[in-house]
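Question: Send over one sample?
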Amino acid sequence: MRGTTVPVVICAILSLWFALAAHAATLELLPAADNTIYEPAPPFDPSSSELNPSNGAGDFIFAGRVADMNEGLRRRALVGFDLAAQIPAGSIITEVTLRLYLSQTITAPVVTTDVSLHRLTSTWGEAASDASGQEGGGANAILGDATWFHAEFDTTLWQLPGGDFLPQASATTAIGDRNLFYTWSEPRMIADAQCWLDDPGQNFGWILLGDESVSATAKRFDSRDSFSFDLTTNRRTLPVLTVTYVPEPDSAGLMMAALLASLGTRRRAVALGNAHARTPFTTSP
């Protein structure tokens, strides 16, 4: 009977472990804010709203460089999600995927280029600026908007024009033809999200950088203000962050696990002590 005690205890511990793991949950989060910062054409005047485009309430966000006819200026998208408002504190994040819908790109021919996520290191703003038409040129910045020079117009400057962010990308995805969903999902994104959950004061979201080494690489994605649907999947084209996490086990569950582990250790020690009193197993000479 004693010989079956240890396996039974181990099974009980494993059952408890799997029961806790079964509580893993998956959420789809919409952005708390998004915006595009537009590199302005000279002359530069950080104090002028007309010379500092933004697009806080626009339907689209942009990443990459525009064509040479538009001076090859850079566009960078900002996107942030409020994890702490929807995921219990103490949870362990196990998977993170960002999904964006590409609604426009330079065609004839379609150029596939990388778009990377970089973790932002400063707070930034989304106000009511709303570009017209295809939105590629942005709109006059409104008080509180992020611009190329400002984290928040016209009171708080970035440390460097173009945004404050970590140099190493959290994830990179090749972006090709339009009217398709694209996803980013790499381990550094999990680390970013876990940091933001554990310390919401450090949650400034990501900045999207396209290929800025050459012109005509700009990609246009639908923003959180878009009302569009993808006709193929019949899904909204809003940005979505999918997060899988395991909630922090409650104290009762942890105590039960500790009790079972202790019981298993004690039973195993007794069994080994009895075994030592028996004739040891030996091989024939």
Q: What stands out?
A: The two ends are 33 Å apart (CA to CA). Helices lie at 5-21, 187-198, 251-276.
